[in-house]
Write a structure and sequence with these properties.
By secondary structure, this protein is an alpha/beta fold. The protein contains 13 helices and nine strands. The protein has helices spanning 36-40, 45-53, 75-85, 100-113, 129-136, 141-158, 179-190, 214-229, 242-262, 303-307, 310-320, 328-335, 340-363, and strands at residues 11-15, 61-65, 90-95, 118-124, 163-171, 194-199, 275-278, 283-285, 294-295. Strands 6-5-4-3-2-1-7-8-9 form a nine-stranded mixed beta sheet, sandwiched between helices. Helix 3 (75-85) packs parallel to helix 4. The longest helix has 24 residues, at 340-363. It is globular, with a radius of gyration of 19 Å.
Length: 374
Amino acid sequence: MVVGRPISPVFLNILVTSVCDMRCTHCFFTEELDDRPRKKLQMKADEIAKISETLGGNLGVLVLAGGEPFTRKDLPEIVRAFYENNKLDSVYLMSNGQIHQRIFPDVTRILDECPKLNVTVALGIDGVKEAHEKIRRKEGSWDKAIHTARTLQQMKREQYPQLDIQTCTCVMHSNEDTIFDWYDFLKYDLKPDKVNINYIRPPSADPTELEFDHTRYARLSQMILDDTKNAALKNNYGGKSGFFKAAVDIYMHDLIAKTKEENKAQLKCYAGSAGAVIYDNGVLSSCENKPDVLNLRDYDWNFQAAWKTDMMKARRKEAGAGCFCTHESNCYYPSLPFNAGHLVKIKKLEKQMKKAAKEMSIREPQGDGLAIKA
């Protein structure tokens, strides 16, 4: 990357479907959801497998999102393709936690067929029940999502230690008044493996959601950091690089807050280099914040052929020339490890987290699910 040569992405985000069973107030993808002409163009599993076969290199993290990815009956096949072809280390399955009849058997199948894969089910739960159901516009959705989390936790305890359960909460107008009550619930009751917060970004189905007190996000970010350092919260992923990935997550929250406060870039963005986004219809882009670059179907699903085009080269140059945003998975997650100054601080935080986890395991050797091996 230093000399301008493209590398194979180590972080790949695929929106595998535009089908969704919700219409959330903060959704940036609302206009595309359940669009019939678009659904006809949805990538098939064998087309995604071709992308995997031509991706090149090893893949550290694969994020499968949508829409609701569990609406696809072939989700396990998609995961297995990257596991077999790209030595995939971790997959994050982004879900609203509603389709129980698909989630539990599909997650079980992925874990059985990919035994060395670290699997994270990232559940979008946007606060306490009243706030969540107002945002998600679906009565009963909070109870279903919590049931999903607890069932997956039971699966982890009984059979699948490589399974992690993460909560993803988008901080916005509708939940800002109860966001700290929600954090207490996560910390003392639900106790997920990883607590994640997102900064709402435009466009939003309801623009009012974008108007919230920024200081609450910053305060919550600091609370999560302090509780992680003090072992009051587990807050890490499994696998050899689990602590590092979690440290990147936690570190970036403060950087996102600074980006909003100062309205300028806090790092060099490697979207389009270390990370990429593929949409359900085959479109390839550096990130979700910028226009589409090209469509992989025009390159017979050959990822490297598309990746090395002049169009992608121009996008990398544009991203690295001071472009900035608050998008966690498109900008910060793939870029931070390649920014030397930030990497030093992340490694320091990783060391603190490992120490805290070790102290936690000593304090709670027979714990209730929080105790982990360092």
